[in-house]
Design brief:
The chain has a single domain, classed as Ribonucleoside hydrolase-like (Inosine-uridine Nucleoside N-ribohydrolase, Chain A), CATH 3.90.245.10. By secondary structure, it is an alpha/beta fold. The protein has a 9-stranded mixed sheet with strand order 3-2-1-4-5-6-11-9-10, with helices on both faces. A two-stranded antiparallel ribbon has the order 7-8. The radius of gyration is 18 Å and the shape is globular. α1 links the parallel β1 and β2. The protein contains 13 helices and 11 strands. The chain starts with 6 loop residues before the first strand and ends with a helix.
């Protein structure tokens, strides 16, 4: 008898077109048992992220609880820099999805995270696809959260490359830098996938058309949403493709062996023109004087990726019947 047991996964998400791809990918992956979604701001405001998360569960035919996360940053900022120019005003490429039949559960996103890791200690994997506000709040609600959660995969940061919201910062980290610094130094088993990795994993315009023509469960749905996303990439990056940020992070949770990692301490710049910058100390050097870098727990940062294998896995799963 097989001992295979899928990971219990909570997806913290701000859907978002590539979030939609990642969520549907998770539902198509036998390695993962999605036990809930928590919504956050980023690509859209939190309330719309909640609506889109509920809608995507219905598209997938999955009865999965969705918990609405915080409406502001951890410290209450409301200027959230929503990326509607990337994802459309509805977050799903102006496809105007219908109002979902289901409603979010009564627990908030952070409360749901705390409750599930308490219910399944050492078993829950969190895949964080937006700003880390909900997870930072969960850490405030339960100091033992880092010990109880199995692992956290974070889409965030730009390691040794320019950011995508400005030259210094990647959008998810810049969305709530204080929350990011709290989470990345909390002591949990954390793996970070930055845009230095996700910019290597792409789906071309031709492949998007193939996705729309296939008879898969999600092909035509995603093809319609991806047009707006493709147009953004073509205009701003000059590529005949889209970057697969969120799906690549989900693949890391599915099969971590498709990437390689370095270990070290990551801190986040809190202010100034480099606000949101992720700084990675992977050296073994002993510093002469104590600093804010000392005695911080190391995390794993993705440094290489088998981009063809990751892209092929994403396409195969999303094109499956």
């Amino acid at each position: 008898m097989s001992s295979f047991k899928p990971k219990k996964v909570i997806i913290d998400t701000d859907p978002g077109i590539d979030d939609a791809m990642a969520i549907l990918l998770a539902f198509q992956s036998p390695e993962l048992d999605v036990i809930g979604l928590t919504s956050t701001f980023g690509n859209v405001h939190t309330a719309l992220a909640t609506r889109n998360a509920l809608h995507l569960c219905e598209v997938a035919g999955k009865d999965v609880p969705v918990a609405q996360g915080l409406l502001t940053t951890l410290r209450g900022a409301v200027n959230l820099g929503i990326a509607d120019f990337v994802h459309g005003s509805d977050g799903l490429g102006h496809t105007n999805p219908p109002e979902p039949k289901q409603k979010p559960i009564d627990l908030s996103g952070p409360e749901f995270l705390v409750a599930r890791v308490e219910e399944f200690p050492g078993e829950v994997t969190v895949v964080a696809l937006g700003p880390l506000t909900n997870i930072a709040k969960a850490l405030e609600l339960d100091r033992d959260f880092p010990k109880k959660v199995r692992e956290i995969f974070v889409l965030g940061g730009a390691f040794f490359v320019n950011g995508n919201i400005n030259p210094a910062a990647e959008a998810n980290i810049a969305g709530d830098p204080e929350a990011a610094d709290i989470v990345l130094t909390c002591g949990a088993n954390i793996t970070v996938i930055g845009i230095n990795i996700t910019h290597q994993v792409m789906m071309t315009g031709r492949e998007i058309e193939e996705l729309g023509k296939c008879n898969s469960k999600f092909g035509k749905y995603l093809r319609n949403a991806l047009q707006f996303y493709y147009d953004y990439h073509h205009e701003f990056y000059g590529v005949d493709a889209i970057y697969l940020h969120d799906p690549t992070t989900m693949v890391a949770a599915i099969d971590p062996s498709l990437l390689t990692y370095a270990e070290g301490v990551v801190r986040v710049q809190q202010e100034g023109i480099c606000k949101g910058l992720t700084l990675f100390n992977s050296t073994k050097k002993k510093w002469a004087e104590p600093t804010e870098w000392c005695n911080k727990p190391p995390i794993k940062v993705a440094v290489t990726v088998d981009s063809d294998a990751v892209a092929n896995l994403i396409k195969a799963r999303l094109m499956a019947l």
